[in-house]
Specification:
Elements: H1 6-20, H2 27-31, H3 35-45, E1 53-59, E2 62-74, E3 77-89, H4 98-109, E4 115-121, H5 125-133, E5 137-147, E6 150-160
Parallel strand pairs: 3-4
Antiparallel strand pairs: 1-2, 2-3, 4-6, 5-6
Helix pairs in contact: 1-3
């Protein structure tokens, strides 16, 4: 990912939230998302964390998907494990292998770590199936995050790596 990709990545992320989280996150939260504000934050923080890797998937020069990974965050402490922080595909291009390509690239680049973990909305059945088909399993950990004053449950998934 380059600095020039920030606007497109923010658009993919916002459209991804609105598509995948409809009915799972309060509509007020989804309606309040701003591509412009997200892109400004993304540009301001770009390159500030060398331990976080952002990947994009392009077709014919157009960014269609984005993934971000780095060390697993256990509160303020980082562990030896990897964490997939985000994986979004432009909703108009779902089902075309872009998400799998980004996930595979992230897994390959983290192969020296013992495990990769990720958090997914508990009610997001399509995403859960996607990760399960890729060898991830829920490990029993659950944590909510707050969206527009509503607690939204997430479950943690884990996959052992070759590391």
């Amino acid at each position: 990912m380059t600095l020039a990709d920030c606007e497109r990545v923010s658009g993919i992320r916002i459209r991804g939230w609105r598509h995948a989280y409809r009915g799972l996150v309060p509509q007020a939260c989804l309606d309040g998302l701003s591509v412009t504000a997200d892109a400004e934050r993304r540009r301001a923080g770009f390159g500030q964390r060398p331990d976080v890797v952002n990947l994009v998937a392009e077709r014919d020069g157009t960014v269609l998907g984005w993934a971000a990974y780095g060390p697993y965050r256990d509160g303020e402490r980082h562990t030896g494990d990897a964490e997939l922080y985000a994986l979004y595909v432009d909703p108009a291009h779902l089902g075309g292998g872009i998400g799998r390509t980004l996930l595979t690239a992230s897994l390959d680049r983290c192969a020296a770590r013992p495990r990769m973990l990720l958090w997914v909305l508990k009610g997001n059945a399509p995403a859960r199936r996607f990760y399960e088909r890729a060898g991830f399993r829920p490990d029993g950990a659950e944590e909510p995050f707050e969206a527009a004053g509503v607690s939204v449950p997430e479950v943690r998934y884990v996959r052992t790596l070759a590391g």
